[in-house]
Amino acid sequence: MESKAVQSTSRFDLLKWLVVFVLVAAGVVGNLYFGAESLLYRVVALVALGIVAAFIALQTSRGHRFAVLLKEARVEIRKVVWPTRPELIQTTAIVVVFVLVVALILWGMDSLVSWLVAGFIG
After folding, report:
1. Which one, of 61, 45, 46, lies nearest residue 11 by Cα?
2. Per residue, what are the HEC states of 56-122?
3. pLDDT tens-digit map of 25-78
4. What pTM value is reported for the model?
5. What are the contacts of 46-55 at 24+ separation with CB within 8 A?
6. Residue 11: per-residue pLDDT
7. How many other CB atoms are found less than 10 A from the CB of residue 61?
8. Spatial contact of 60 and 16, defined as CB atoms under 8 Å apart
9. So where are the chain's domains?
10. Which one-letter DSSP state was computed for residue 38?
11. Above 70 in pLDDT, residue 95?
């Protein structure tokens, strides 16, 4: 039963995406056309067009799936065990020291190779 509802709404999805595209294009062209107007007015108009376009895009089947994905991602983020401040500082220090050691090794190898090449070229 639900698959029929999704199929009936998906007939209009192309039209909805076309409206979203027209709104975005109108925002771009309008921003160029009204370039002499105040930046505040242009930003408010672009934000309003963006909100309307996002609302219309969320009414499509892909938009609905995207909204569900965002909700599920938010639930998963709450399950993450974040490191404590001391763990974060310790891990960051280890990474910085490791990067410095590797940089010194690469600098030494580069110096050695350039010294050898300079010796051969003479």
Report:
1. 61
2. HHHCCHHHHHHHHHHHHHHHHHHHCCCCCHHHHHHHHHHHHHHHHHHHHHHHHHHHHHHHHHHHHHC
3. 999 999 999 989 999 999 999 999 999 999 999 999 999 999 999 999 999 999
4. 0.57
5. 49/23, 49/24, 52/23, 53/19, 53/20, 53/23, 53/24, 53/27
6. 79
7. 14
8. yes
9. 1-80, 82-122
10. -
11. yes
